[in-house]
């Protein structure tokens, strides 16, 4: 009985997750959230905004909206002062003196 219920739950989740309309709604929500985060004064707001916009681009299936989101992401990165970004939010064990060494 529980195996059948688990199977039905998995199938319902898959149908919802991959349904084109649901994906578009999630993409629009993430886009809205990314734009709202950009207007925030928090140190991690820029990272949150870019992360939400990237997520929105992954969810959407509309090519025009995807290009628009990519332009918005590029504009935010071009306008961003990299010193303003709170890297600890993106890289949990970030330390200014050793981070560049770990990269290479």
SSE inventory with pairings:
Elements: H1 2-18, H2 20-38, H3 45-59, H4 63-79, H5 87-90, H6 99-103
Helix pairs in contact: 2-3, 3-4
Structure report:
- The chain has one domain (20-92).
- The chain has 6 helices and no strands.
- It has helices at residues 2-18, 20-38, 45-59, 63-79, 87-90, 99-103.
- It is extended.
- It starts with a helix and ends with a helix.
- The mean pLDDT is 80.
Give a brief description.
The chain is an all-alpha fold and 104 residues long. It is 74% helix and 0% strand.
Oligomer: single chain
Rg estimate, integer Å: 18 Å
* Unreliable spans: none
Mean pLDDT: 80
Largest β-sheet summary: none
Give me some keywords for this one.
single chain, 104 residues, mainly alpha
């Amino acid at each position: 009985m529980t195996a059948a219920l688990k199977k039905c739950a998995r199938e319902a989740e898959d149908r919802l997750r991959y349904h084109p309309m649901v994906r578009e709604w999630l993409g629009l929500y993430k886009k809205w959230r990314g734009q709202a985060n950009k207007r925030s004064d928090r140190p991690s707001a820029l990272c949150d905004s870019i992360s939400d916009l990237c997520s929105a681009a992954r969810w959407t299936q509309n090519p025009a909206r995807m290009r628009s989101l990519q332009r918005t992401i590029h504009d935010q990165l071009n306008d961003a002062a990299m010193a303003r970004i709170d890297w600890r939010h993106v890289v949990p064990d970030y330390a200014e003196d050793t981070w560049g060494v770990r990269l290479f």
